[in-house]
Amino acid sequence: MSQHSDINDNVNSTDTTDEQTLNSTSEPINNDNSTSQEIEPTSDKHIRIVNTFMKRRTHMNKNAELALTAPEFSEYLVNNSFGDGDLTGIDNLRTLFADSPNGADAPLTVEIGFGLGDSFIEMAAADPTRNFVGVEVHEPGIGKCAYMAGTQDLSNVKIINGDAIQLLKQLPENHIDRIQLYFPDPWQKKRHYKRRFVSPERMTIVTRSLKQGGWFHTATDWEHYAFWMVEVLDGFVGLTNKAGKGNFTERPDFRPMTKFERRGLDRGHGVWDLIYIKD
What we know:
- The protein has 7 helices and 9 strands.
- It is of the alpha/beta class.
- It has a single domain (5-14, 22-278), classed as Vaccinia Virus protein VP39 (Rossmann fold, 3-Layer(aba) Sandwich), CATH 3.40.50.150.
- It has a 7-stranded mixed β-sheet with strand order 5-4-3-6-7-9-8, sandwiched between helices.
- The protein is globular.
- The two termini are 33 Å apart.
- Pfam families: Methyltransf_4.
- InterPro entries: SAM-dependent_MTases_sf, tRNA_(Gua-N-7)_MeTrfase_Trmb, tRNA_methyltr_TrmB_bact.
């Protein structure tokens, strides 16, 4: 499954679909079966964190394929977008914008799992003085996102194919102004809770790369996962809930509301936003 709900959309269209079923449950949170399985030791020196996504084959339309192969879109693609997500040598995201109008010192937002990129590109277009890096593993989404960036002639977008956690490990400390995680896979079954992105182990990696005062912003349409995240994040040393401990925040204006999200709200389903600030 994707790191983001948008990847369930039909890549032949810019519209979102209802392929992901909205869920709202009041099942009590039980962390006993999760934190003990979050990491798998591979040796005395190395710890491998379980993936939060599963890569799968999806149809790629002509525009997405064009963006992955045509030279005019190559400026948006940091690494081999048809490859295996090799992140070798990507150890400073700011240098990617050194020759752009914004330069390397502009505010930097990283979105993890942008799906097909509709909201990611909308945010980048609406805030041209901020640099945006999107991280995704599914080639159709990467291609569509690059196509939209190119057709809108955006100069503040870069796209990376690969595992976001591995990428964050390679980056300097205090490097990113905002990290966004919108509608991540909720991994509904209890035995899969170890794959949920928001965990103490992963948040240690996320927080390390954030600047002091930087934001971690996440949103979900799964109530159980929403309260899971509050429990994990409120208890995480180094982050402060912008809305106050135990509270959710209103959707900020800079996060676009997708058609999928709007349909869900019209049907009475909830969406929960959380913003945490690095102390």
